[in-house]
Amino acid sequence: MNIVTLCGYLGNHWENNVKAETKEEEWFARNTLAISKAWINKKGQRVEQTSWIPVVVFGKNAKTAVNYTTKGSGFLLSGELITEIYQVTDETTGEVKNKQSWQVVIKQFDLKASNNKKPMDTDEVQEEDKEKEIDIAYYDKNGNEIPQQTQPA
Question: Which domain of life is it from (predicted)?
Fold first, then answer.
């Protein structure tokens, strides 16, 4: 079973192709999720470590993510860890090496409470916008849509 659940903050603005002229099934959005942990070391000093997790989301969920989250937004996701192996040739030695990359493919997500959860195209959240609901599409592993749920903005 390949299920990943992560909670953190978006590290960047979305890199995406969500446009009116692009077919919905081709929409995607990429970002990184910052996940931090902190502890006190043996010297009594606070130490913080941040991991940057590459994430990608497709379809209607990509549009929702792009429209309602931005850099710094709180983000809770469930998805699948995907790894890819590719080859790189060293330019100086000609040696071919195998490299591995990975990312989390987002299957569903929730917007965490955050000061930055407003749509990207507005400067201020209007009072009436606080009551607006956000439609989030959920898909099973075969790409079939699961009945939609809503969450207050």
Answer: Bacteria
